[in-house]
Amino acid sequence: MRCPQCGCLDDKVIDSRAIKEGAGVRRRRACLECGFRFSTIEGVIPEELRVVKRDGSRVEFDRDKVRRGIANACYKRPVGTDEIDRMVEEVSTSIMRDFDKEVTSKEIGERVMAQLKQADQVAYVRFASVYRKFKDVDEFIEEIRALK
User: Fold this and answer.
1) 25-34 residues labelled b (16+ CB within 10 A) or e (exposed)
2) What are phi and psi of 28, to 5 degrees?
3) Which DSSP string do the residues of 48-89 spell out, in sequence order?
């Protein structure tokens, strides 16, 4: 590891701790040349997961896009940022666990809707209306009836 102070490549690890429930390691290091102390974070770089969209195109999986979709559905609803973060983490973790290289956008949408259904039914209907492309009020009513 290159020292950010002097650029030397020689250092020693002073302390190591697990972070994010074992998903990574935080290491405290000291440069052997100048004595400067700095921290590094080490984690697994997952293979690129591709999302197969409705039109057949493929894009890289983007957690931020999942977060934006959930946050938009929860706009002005009593759902806190901690709950939104938890839902994003749950969806992302389950997708990474269950799929190796490709996942359909439909599968991601279904998992997001399952999380929203438990958290806030209005947010669920908002997301479902965009995701399923409701064409009229009858489809809204049908989805709301299915909730009850």
Assistant:
1) eebebbbeee
2) -100, 125
3) PPEEE-TTS-EEE--HHHHHHHHHHHTTTSS--HHHHHHHHH
Residue 55 sits at the vertex; the CA angle it makes with 95 and 141, to the nearest 5 degrees, is 75
Q: How far apart are CA 71 and CA 101, in angstroms?
A: 26
Stretch 133-142: mean pLDDT: 76
Tokens of 18: 């697990």
- Consecutive H or E run containing 8: none
**pTM of the predicted model over 0.70:** no
Question: What is the distance of C-alpha 46 from the center of its chain?
Answer: 13
How does 119-145 read in b/e, with b if 16+ C-beta sit within 10 Å? bbebbbbbbbeebeebeeeeeeeebee
